Amino acid sequence: MSWPPWSSWATGRRCSAGSPGRPGAPRLWERERKRRRPSPRGKRSRSRRPKSEGTDRPWRPEIRGPRPGRRTVARRWKLLGGGAVIAGALTYLVAGGIGDNLVYFVTPDELLAKGEAAYGAPVRLAGRVEPGSVKWDAEAVRLRFGLGEGGIVVPVESRGAPPQMFQEGIHVIVEGSLERGGLFRAHNLMVKHSNEYEPPAEGEPPPEVRYRQLMETGRPGGSP
């Protein structure tokens, strides 16, 4: 028996099973290592197709968004709490302001019908300026007149110059309170304007002249 002149067994070399005797061919263990090498971070490995799905359409893995964390929930509760506090404060201010500053609109007969409740309460009093009751004190800047309605006349005293349209016989509104002596002390005087123009009576001066006479002489007619 004679040995061949060259043999891979004799020299200690082993060729791969796939390509025996070819130098540089990939060995089995190298190919197995490459196949089992883990995928790098950041890349999504291919997911296997579930058996329940068919092969007619491509399958895509379901990607879910991040779950809300504790910070998001806490911020949501803070916003809700702040909104509730602001709404409560506005409700308190509106309700308290209306309750404290509510001013009633009454006539002299309705005011006196309240009895003890009429004294000292802020109220709006509406009526007609009684003829011959207007007195103007230029030095004290004080106006006095009688306000009547329903057969009742209430004396009114107001500080400051009256409106230019103020005169006897017109309807006015005064804001203030009734004192126990029967005097209504007003801090605001408003003239009720009518939509219809009424010219002055024959021989009666216009409102501008009557106002100037009131400021100069203290009486609408011009006689002191």
Report on this structure.
The chain is an alpha+beta fold and 224 residues long. It contains five helices and seven strands; from the N terminus they run H-H-H-E-H-E-E-E-E-E-E-H. A five-stranded mixed β-barrel has the order 2-4-5-7-6.
Secondary-structure blueprint:
Blueprint: H1 8-11, H2 28-35, H3 70-100, E1 104-106, H4 108-112, E2 123-129, E3 135-137, E4 142-149, E5 152-159, E6 171-178, E7 184-191, H5 207-217
CATH fold-level topology of the domain at 105-193 and 205-217? OB fold (Dihydrolipoamide Acetyltransferase, E2P)
Rg, Cα atoms, Å: 51 Å
For the residues shown, what is the average pLDDT?
A: 72
Q: What share of residues is helical?
A: 25-40%
Which segments are poorly predicted (pLDDT under 50) over 5 or more consecutive residues?
Answer: 7-13, 15-19
Cα distance spanning the termini: 165 Å
Gross geometry = rod-shaped
Structural class by sheet pairing and helices: alpha+beta
Reported for the largest beta sheet, the result is:
5 strands, mixed, barrel
CATH architecture of the domain at 105-193 and 205-217: Beta Barrel
Number of helices: 5
Query: For the record, what CATH class of the domain at 105-193 and 205-217 applies?
Result: Mainly Beta
Number of strands: 7
CATH superfamily of the domain at 105-193 and 205-217: Nucleic acid-binding proteins
Strand neighbour order, sheet with most strands: 2-4-5-7-6
Helix and strand element order: HHHEHEEEEEEH
Which percent range describes the beta-strand content? Answer: 15-25%
